[in-house]
Design brief:
- The chain is an alpha+beta fold and 150 residues long.
- The chain has one domain: OB fold (Dihydrolipoamide Acetyltransferase, E2P) (Beta Barrel), CATH 2.40.50.
- The chain has helices spanning 60-64, 99-104, 114-123, 125-132, and strands spanning 5-13, 16-21, 25-29, 34-35, 44-50, 53-59, 73-79, 82-88, 90-98, 135-139.
- The chain has a six-stranded mixed beta sheet with strand order 3-7-8-6-5-4. Strands 9-1-2-10 form a four-stranded antiparallel beta sheet.
- Strand 1 (5-13) and strand 2 (16-21) form a beta hairpin.
- The protein is globular, with a radius of gyration of 15 Å.
- The relative contact order is 0.25.
Length: 150
């Protein structure tokens, strides 16, 4: 954006409030049926048919080590030539964050499961790049409200 800010999609994954660059987000939707795939990391829920295409579904809270989650939304993100669905607890909405605010936030993958990240990196470097572009906005307090401004 011209004013030195970037639009992000805020979503809750377990105890974390995450900011995903809107440039990577295709759409948000209700969860679709998911077919499990064998020998996948625990964060990979399986495949869902999204707009007629088999789409990998990843539980973002599990991937981030963000505690228990109850995914109620999918966030489709573009990873090069394909789309991946991130299962999240809640989509908060969009927000413009300044580049300084974004630099001050911890990286999304800071506490991620290393085995899952390594597996994703081996199979899908473009998805790994999308996830690396996200940030943790804050922890979620016990009451379920963001700790700090969102």
């Amino acid at each position: 954006m011209a004013n030195g800010s970037e639009r992000v999609l805020l979503c809750r994954a377990g105890r974390m409030l995450c900011a995903l660059p809107l440039a990577h987000v295709v759409e948000t939707m209700r969860p679709l049926p998911v077919d499990a795939i064998g020998a996948a990391p625990t964060s990979v829920l399986g495949l869902a048919l999204v707009r007629g295409e088999p789409t990998l579904v990843i539980d973002l809270a599990r991937l981030l080590g963000a505690g228990e989650s109850s995914p109620r939304r999918f966030v489709s993100v573009r990873t090069g030539s394909r789309t991946v669905a991130l299962a999240v607890d809640e989509v908060i909405g969009t927000r413009a964050l300044s580049r300084d605010e974004l630099r001050a936030l911890p990286p999304l993958l800071r506490e991620a499961e290393l085995d899952s990240i390594a597996a994703i990196g081996r199979h899908d470097a473009e998805l790994l790049a999308v996830l690396e572009s996200g940030q943790i906005v804050s922890g979620i307090e016990a009451a379920g409200t963001p700790a700090g401004p969102a």
